[in-house]
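Invent a record, attention on tokens:
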Amino acid sequence: MLVGSSGRLHHEQRHIRYDSGMERRTEKGAPGGTGFTVRPGRRNDATEAARLWVRSAEEHTLYDPVYTTAPNAEKVMRRFLADLSGSSHSCLFVAEIDGEVIGFLSGELREGSPAFKPKTWAAVEDIYVVPAHRSLGIGRALVEECNKWAHEKGANGVSLQVAAGNLRARKFYERLGFHEVSVYEVKEF
């Protein structure tokens, strides 16, 4: 789909290009061209998505050291994300500008607790957009693609976890219609 000057979406293969007149920034933050593309991830996107996952984990250690990665985390995530891209019960979406992957979302279908009314959730595992490209609608577009995928798979909704200290992300998810249901707590020994 393309977003034209009228703001309307037009279909274009399985890639979605967002260019509603907003300026985008280069890595250095200078104004550049317009638009970004969100598409289903492929197996060969796993390397870049894993690299971004490591950047996300590094940012998360500022919220809590529990997010400190293992020495081989990038390799493990590369394999995990490659597997996600080929599964019908999981998703990988990538955002790119001029062929450069600048964000991704990964998730999978999960059944709710059998003790509650049966529900299937599209559980977002990870979502990340490089800092130089934030606040341009890329994260929103990734979540929208996940929402569409969840609908296609017959899920009852989308769920995710967010670091308690990540107030920016928590506000972002709230603006997208998410609400807090439970609080995940840890006690380390």
Notes: Residues 1-31 have pLDDT under 50 and may be disordered. The longest strand covers residues 100-111. The CA atoms of residues 17 and 37 lie 4 Å apart.
